[in-house]
Amino acid sequence: MSHHQNTAEHREARRLDALARLQILDTPSEQAFDDLTELAARWLDTPIALVSMVDDQRQWFKSRVGLAVNQTPRELAFCAHAIQAHELFEVPDAALDDRFSDNPLVTSDPHIRFYAGMPIASPEGELVGTLCVIDRVPRQLTESQQDTLRRLARIAEFQLRLRLSLLDSEERALALEHQEALNQRLLDSITAGVVACNDAGELTLFNNTAQQWHGTDVMKVAPSEWGRYYDLYESDGTTPLATEAIPLLRAWRGEAVDNIEISIAAVGQPLRQVLCSGGQLYPEHAGTGAAIVVMHDITEIRRASNLKSEFLATVSHELRTPLTAISGAIGLLRNGATGSLPPASERLLRIAQDNSQRLSELVNDLLDMEKLEAGQLDLQLKPQLLRPIVEQALEINQPYAERYQVSWRLEPAATDPMVLVDERRLQQVLSNYLSNAAKFSHAGGLIQVQVLIEGDEVEVQVVDQGIGIAEEQQQLLFNKFIQLDNSNARQRGGTGLGLAICKELIERMDGQVGVRSREGAGAFFWFRLPLSQAVL
Predict the structure, then answer these.
(1) Are 442 and 523 in contact (CB under 8 A)?
(2) Which residues are 72's β-sheet partners?
(3) Does the pTM of the predicted model rise above 0.70?
(4) Containing H/E element for 454?
(5) Model pLDDT for residues 100-151, shown as the tens digit of each residue
(6) What Pfam families would the database entry show (predicted)?
(7) Same domain, 360 and 386
(8) Whole-angstrom Cα distance, residue 13 to residue 21?
(9) Alpha-carbon gap, residue 64 to 110, rounded angstroms
């Protein structure tokens, strides 16, 4: 046996001894660890968070959020890699990582794509486990999120130190007091407001930030009296919030608290807008139960958003009138209103008209996006036969096909499904899909349009044989102001808002959007809508 092997085995033996001294494996759940995983999942916005202990055969989860199993074999464990380092271990995309791409935890349930784990050390300094977060889509933590994970891992390490202390000492009450003090100090250092209650509905956590925002200490106030001690309002800042609508009380009752916006008015402070998310710590229990809510101050974000919306609306409306006049004047000149024009003048007017059209599209897209974000875009939903809408969209967008020298074909279908939609807005979505397919196709290309019924949904597909889309860019396409990052795509123009508007409109009609593509091999854009049972 080599010296290196002997040293590695000795280190592993020390680590396993430290883990055994903690007597933590296969123990019941503890709220202190459950609070950590709940906070990690919420603050880092991941569906799965774990406190994992790694022995010689397995990784066992002391606490878990979003995962049904309580252990996995060590040879499959991402955490087994994380404990080899003394710093945060992050895997942005497991499917592209040679160490994990064929791991069953990646290729099948729970379909891990992103992993970030911070090693947890025993009191002796041995790395016995991790606090980790997992997502099913590729991503990376920001520096702030990495710092949050490190801080939470330090709390887990304190819990292990406390556990060892409790095993060796009869001064349990003092140790618990130290635990609560450390937890409170950490939570008080966080700029988010954090509040929690136990199964009886009694407040167990109300950090300094929350107290400052509320203007009082309400730790001993019963749930039914929470509304008497400070002023809370609906997100409009003027309508008082009913006591039963307080986010923590809702979470305690088992209701979902997901990005609920409220306003807090405290003595001596301006009205503060906060975004609340949380839920029960043990949702599998029926009825009321211990809950936690995290609050983020979004006052400045809301103020900036309102200013941006007002600015865009003003600029957009002010641009529309002169743009209409410019486009009309150019059109008259090109149509011979002042006589025939020399070729050079005709070329310049064509360029001006094209750019006026692009500016008009941008103004219209900005106004639509602002209305959608503000919830001011009303849809007129009616039961409609889908195929005539698609046929009309093909006819309306025929000039695009002629301009880019492509053709499209609507595939035959046995039935014409009925959907509950706003016809004008669905035409807007179809026009965006078709015009994009035309712009990014090669001359002479064929664009296929298909309407397929799948279960209780109908899927509309627009398939081109054009330049295609790189895989890493596909997930960004439906975000605002996103255009393909290559010179060929940029030359073909666009506002960067069209697909984002399509996504918002289809989702407002209870549907979904998506894309499949390979660079250089065309693109397959689709949207799905639920079938309507209404009768015309």
Answers:
(1) no
(2) 59
(3) no
(4) strand 446-454
(5) 999 999 999 999 999 999 999 998 899 999 999 999 999 999 999 999 999 9
(6) GAF, HATPase_c, HisKA
(7) no
(8) 12
(9) 13
**Single-letter residue type at 117:** G
| Structural domain boundaries, residue 43 | 3-181
Secondary structure letter of residue 109 according to DSSP: T
Look up residue 274 and give its amino acid. V
Q: Could you tell me which of 350, 358, 439, 347 has the C-alpha nearest to residue 402?
A: 439
Q: Assess if residue 76 is contained within a domain.
A: yes
Answer yes or no: is 438 within a domain: yes
The arithmetic mean of pLDDT across residues 292-301, rounded, is: 89
Of the candidates 63, 183, 186, 188, the residue with the CA atom closest to the CA atom of residue 133:
63
Q: Are 387 and 510 contained in the same domain?
A: yes
Phi, psi of 355 (to 5 degrees): -70, -30
By C-alpha distance, which of 109, 110, 88, 90 is closest to 99? 90
> 276 and 141: one domain?
no
User: Considering Cα of 484, then 93, then 119, then 50, what sign does the dihedral take?
Assistant: positive
Domain count, the chain: 4
Alpha-carbon distance values, 196 to 171, 223, 243, 262, 494 (Å): 26, 12, 16, 17, 48
| Residue of 365, 451, 382 whose CA lies nearest to 422 | 382
Are both 290 and 306 inside the same structural domain? no
Is residue 536 in a domain? no
**Dist CA 29 CA 51 (whole Å):** 11
- Clarify whether residues 417 and 481 are in a common domain: yes
How close are the terminal C-alpha atoms of the chain, in Å?
Answer: 82
Q: Which CATH number fits the domain that encloses residue 363?
A: 1.10.287
- Asked whether residue 83 falls in the same domain as residue 12, the answer is yes
